[in-house]
Amino acid sequence: MQYIEQNHETIIKSESLRQHVVTNQPLMISNLSRKITGDLISHGVSIVHSFPMNDFTKFNELAQSVITYPMNYKGGTNSREDLGGGTLSVGTEPPDVDVPAHNEMSYWHRYPEIIMFGCKQCPDGKGPTVIANNLDITKDILSTSVGRKFKEQGVKFIRNFYNEDSKQHGHSETCLRSWQQAFGCSNKSAMIKLCEKENWGYSFTEKDDITISYKLPAFEFDPALNENLFFVPIGCHGYAFDHWAPYNSLENHRRPYHLTYGDGSELSTDDINTIEQINDAHGIPIFWENGKILIVDNRRYTHARPPYKADPMKPREIGVRIGNPIERYGQREITKLFSSVY
Ligand SMILES: [Fe+2]
């Protein structure tokens, strides 16, 4: 497929981010896709400017070319709207809620290797998505007691889902998604079977809402870097709901999601601040413009969304595609790069 543009150039900025400007020379989607794939291998991130985004049609074509195996959000924390052709809306967090740095679906047994964001309508002030090199984050985290405890203990996730068959579920006050939506289970016995197969802890309420819990390694091996990268999405801690009504009236473990160290011990406020400060220190803001696309290697780069200014007349429209699923490699014994802190 071709579209009209003027020129195609590659800019390497001081941050080593690869940026492609689509202007008015005819360009094959496949050529752009090849450049993006090359960027992901060499840098872990690629940015496209001035891409046609009147709707998500061209973005879908590009995504299908970059992503070999598309994924949905089965098992995900958020409900998402289908914007057409497989492109989904970004999370439902209100604009004034800070979404801390995370690797997409790093709270799950399976995660996408690639995540693509396409901006149809940027928010006022171009409110950015902030990316950060996870190798830098990992190095700093491992120099702290928080990182060492996570390395030793792993991370435990606690997640709450409502039962959409309940006539009196009142779910809007406790959960973001139903277990039927999140896991594709049509009845309670299928849900129990899944929990037992996956070895998740679980308990149902009277209304058959469910709490599940499971433990994962806090670091994830990256075969290309031969390094274990920090893989704890601190935004999955209950504190992420502190400014999000009505969830902020609940205890952390009753909020839609929460995390602890793998031994069940809670993170202190200082522990959370340590992680946030390290994430912030390495953040690179990518300010949105209409037609801008951001593609990241989802292990090598984290992404975050600081609060942004919402305009009801001009809502922020950013679509997301994820794909190339990876079953967790887990944390591996290695002896290079950061061996001194291992
Ligand atoms: Fe995300």
Describe the fold and architecture:
The N and C termini lie far apart (49 Å). The longest helix is centred in the N-terminal third of the chain and has 14 residues, at 29-42. The protein is built from seven helices and 19 strands. It folds into two domains: 2-134 and 284-327, Double-stranded beta-helix, CATH 3.60.130; 138-276, Clavaminate synthase-like (Double-stranded beta-helix), CATH 3.60.130. Helices cover 20% and strands 33% of the residues. It has 342 residues and is of the alpha+beta class. The protein is globular and about 55 Å long. Strands 1, 2, 3, 4, 5, 6, 8, 17 and 19 form a nine-stranded mixed sheet that branches. A hairpin with a 2-residue loop joins strand 5 (82-84) and strand 6 (87-89). It has helices at residues 29-42, 57-66, 134-141, 145-153, 179-183, 188-198, 269-281; strands at 2-12, 18-28, 45-49, 70-71, 82-84, 87-89, 99-102, 110-121, 129-133, 155-161, 201-204, 210-216, 219-222, 227-230, 257-261, 283-286, 293-297, 301-305, 317-327. It binds fe (ii) ion (FE2). Fe (ii) ion binds at residues 102, 104, 303.
